Amino acid sequence: MAQHWITDIRAASACALALMLGACATTSPESESALDQARVAVERLEAQPLAAQTAGKALQDARDALGAAEKAQSEHKSADEVIHLSYLARRNAEIGESVIAEASARTAMSQAQAQRERVLLDARERETAAARQQTLMAQQSAQQAQQQAQASQQEAQAAQQQARDAQAQLEAMQAKQTDRGMMLTLGNVLFDTNGDTLKPGADELVSRLSQFLQSHPDIKVRIEGNTDSTGSDSYNQALSQRRAEAVATALESRGISASHIQAVGRGKSAPVAGNDTAAGRQQNRRVEIIFSDTQGQFASN
Amino acid sequence: MTRSTLAVAALGALLAAAGCASAPKPTAELAQAHTLVDQAEQGGAAQFASADMAAARSKLQMADQDAAKQPEQSKRLAQEATVDARVALARTNEVKAQQALRDVNAGTQTLRNETDRAQPDATMASPAMPQ
Lengths: 301, 131
Hints:
The structure holds two protein chains of two kinds. By secondary structure, chain A is an alpha+beta fold. Chain A has helices at 9-21, 29-46, 51-54, 56-74, 79-172, 203-215, 233-253, 278-284; strands at residues 176-178, 181-186, 221-226, 261-265, 286-291. Chain A folds into two domains: 1-160, no CATH class; 173-291, CATH 3.30.1330.60. At the A-B interface, helix 1 and helix 5 of A face helix 1 and helix 5 of B.
C-alpha cells in the first residue's frame, strides 16, 4: 500500500536542505499528481447537475480541501501537506458522488414503489373484473335456466290446452270417453245396406273429422268397422274392413296422412247389443273411430 | 517502510533541531475519527464498503500509535481515517438504496408475472362454469 503521506528519502533530503536554508518549503511530482487527481475529482462532482442541491456539504468540503491544497502548494508547504489536503478533497468529492447516486436511487425508489402500487391496483382491478364477469355469467345462466323453465312450463300449458281443446272438440262431435280412449260411433247411415261406398250425407262428418285432425296433427285415428251377425263371418269381416277403409280413404283425400290412420275390419266379433232384435242389429252395424291422445298414443287396452 | 520511517524520524529530529515547535497531540481529530469509524461500522460499511472501511481502520490505528511521537502525522492520519469512514458510510448508503430499489423492482416484476399467469387461468375457468 502506498503510504503517500510518508515522504521518501529524496523529499526528506530536500526538506532537510530547505530547513538548513531556514524555510520548510518543497514541491514534488507526487504532490502535483495528488493535486491533479483532486482537481479532476472535484470538477467531476461539480459537473453533476444535482451536486449543489443534493451533495452541497460534500461539495463544499471538497472545494475547501482543494483550495487549502492549492494554497499549500503555492505557499510551498510540505509535499505531505499538499498530498494530504488533496486526498481529503478527492475523498470528499467521492462522498458527493455517492450521495448523489444514493439520492437518485431514492428518487427511482419512489417511482418504483408507485409502479408497484399500480401493478397491485391493476391486479386487484383484474380480480374484481373477473369476479364481476363470473357473477354476470352466473346470473346469465340462472336467467337462462329460468327462461327455459318458463318455456317448458308454457309448452306444457300449451299441450294441456291443446289436449283440452281436442277433448272439447271431440265431445262436440259426440265422441265419448271409453276405456279405449275417446271414441266416435257412426251409425250405419253412412253406407247403404251391404254397400261400402260412403253416402253423400257422410261428407259433412268426414269434413269435420279431417279439420279436427289437421288442427291436431299429433292425434291419430283407428277406424274400426263392425257388422251384425247376419251373413257369413268372412263376408262380414271383408265388408267391415272395406267400410273402415272407405272412411280412411275419404280422410286421406282431404289431406290427412295415411300414417295417422289405421283401418280395421272387426266383422261381427264386437257387438254392442244383442243380434236377436232389429234394434240390436242396427246398433251393431257401425263404424267406430278411436282417437289417440295428443302424443299419438292410443289407450293401451 | 523502515526506510521511510527512518527518514521521517530523521526529519523529525531535524525539525526539532531547527527549532520548529512540535504540535500538541491531535485529540479532537482522533476523537472524531473514532466516532466516524464507529458510525460507519454500525452502518454496515464493513459489508458494503470493505476497502474504504479497512483503509479507515488502518489509518486510525496508525494515528493512535503516532499520536504522541508524531502529532502532525497523527493528525493527518486521523483526518484521512475520518474522510475514509465518511466515504465508506456514503457508499454503504448508496449500495443499500440501490439494493432496495432492485428488490422493489424485482418484487414488482414477480407480481406482474404472477398476475399475467393468473389472467389466462381466469379466462380458462369461465367456460368450465355451469352454463
